[in-house]
Sequence to fold (59 residues):
Amino acid sequence: MNRKKKINQELKKRQKQANSKVHHSNKPKYISKAERERIAQEQAQLQNQTDEASPTDNV
Fold:
């Protein structure tokens, strides 16, 4: 009985590994808090640069 159980466990383990390679999660990649802050600062700088480059406030 132990031999059959061990064989079945190994087969199930291999099947789970194969399934995990096939099915990918839709969850987005984790971005750390510091990285999010850095990205937000870069976007703010780009926004400021584009605002300065196009003077549309001349009314």
Observations:
- The first helix runs from residue 2 to 22.
- The CA atoms of residues 41 and 47 lie 10 Å apart.
- The chain has a mean pLDDT of 88.
- The helical segments are 2-22, 33-53.
